[in-house]
Design brief:
This protein has 278 residues and is α/β, with parallel strands linked by helices. It has helices spanning 10-22, 37-46, 56-60, 75-82, 101-107, 138-149, 162-191, 195-214, 220-227, 233-245, 248-277, and strands at residues 3-6, 30-33, 51-52, 65-68, 91-94, 111-116, 127-132, 153-156. Bound molecules: NADP nicotinamide-adenine-dinucleotide phosphate (NAP). Keywords: Amino-acid biosynthesis, Cytoplasm, NADP, Oxidoreductase, Proline biosynthesis.
């Protein structure tokens, strides 16, 4: 099997490294291309057998799966570049939320999937969001979900849910890290507990809480019931959070959705411009 990664920046290299570490892919399967050659060359040096190729065409031609790991505005150029070497037997996977499956199906003959990964996959965990185009067959889904399950928990969603689901699974690690940082800074400021101790305690707590909420049989409501006994310290703390956080998550969702709409419109213009040049 030949698997291509076009774009080996942050996410492209994270996916490659996770697939290699999990044993799901052998370096010999992987063909990687990147605009600035050094990033792909660096991967080839670290993982003997992995091929850093000098063009996207070389990566895409004959690959069973092609991961497009570039930013949305880079799509029109890359699609125009590789379209001639693609055929209907290949699967193209987009990892970015604003690029719509319909846009891709209109440009290239391949089977299209959108799989939104998360930084958590570098710890072989977290949910990957799987969205399938019309040409994807049951065996293609099986192949993709087998591959993704080596580094994550694949969750199939509808394309209309992409933004909100990505907010939680892909942006979520940054949001939660920010909350932890704020909490640890306040702890250090108010009590003198060392910042790095607060972070360590918080990180272990998040790890354990995640386990309880996944394999541990707890729901968020049950977890709160078990920890926040009436009249206790935790219950008082939850009352503060309830009062202060009420509007925060609505504002967060409104903001990410507004930014997403802006990105969609820029992308639309970019696809239209590219079509005009072809
Ligand atoms: N970061 C996350 O947690 C996350 C999670 C889910 C999805 N995503 C999505 O993943 C996508 C990539 O994000 P990223 O963080 O990996 O960005 P990134 O670090 O900027 O990587 C993008 C890579 O694409 C390369 N590239 C650009 N144009 C190219 C071309 N024509 N041919 C070949 N390679 C090209 C760039 O090369 P250069 O070295 O020349 O710049 C760069 O290495 C984004 O759309 C993002 O929305 C990210």
């Amino acid at each position: 099997m030949k698997v291509a990664f076009i774009g080996t920046g942050s996410m492209g290299s994270l996916l490659i490294e996770a697939f290699l570490r999990s044993g799901a892919l052998h370096p010999h399967f992987i063909y990687a291309s990147n605009r600035s050659r050094e990033k792909a060359d660096g991967l080839a040096k670290r993982y003997p057998g992995l091929r850093a190729v000098s063009s996207n065409v070389e990566a895409a031609a004959g690959s069973q799966i092609i991961f497009l790991c570039v930013r949305p505005l880079d799509y029109p150029l890359i699609l125009a570049e590789i379209a001639d070497v693609l055929d209907e037997s290949q699967i193209v996977v987009s990892i970015t939320s604003p690029v719509q499956i319909e846009m891709l199906e209109g440009r290239i003959p391949c089977k299209i999937a959108k799989i939104i990964p998360s930084i958590t996959h570098s710890a072989l965990s977290g949910a990957s969001l799987c969205i399938y185009g019309q040409r994807i067959l049951p065996e293609d889904r099986l192949l993709l979900e087998q591959l993704m399950s080596s580094i994550s928990e694949p969750v199939v969603i509808d394309e209309s849910e992409t933004r909100i689901a990505s907010d939680i699974s892909s942006c979520g690690p940054a949001f939660i890290a920010f909350i932890l940082q704020e909490w640890a800074e306040a702890a250090a400021r108010h009590t003198g507990l060392e910042y790095h101790h607060a972070i360590r305690l918080g990180a272990e707590m998040l790890h354990g809480t995640g386990k309880l909420l996944t394999g541990g049989g707890f729901s968020p409501e049950e977890l709160q019931r078990r920890v926040a006994v009436p009249g206790g310290v935790t219950a008082e703390g939850i009352a503060v959070l309830r009062a202060r956080l009420q509007h925060v998550f609505s504002a967060l969702i409104e903001t990410t959705h507004r930014k997403f709409e802006e990105d969609l419109s820029k992308l639309d213009q970019s696809f239209t411009k590219q079509a005009g040049q072809v």
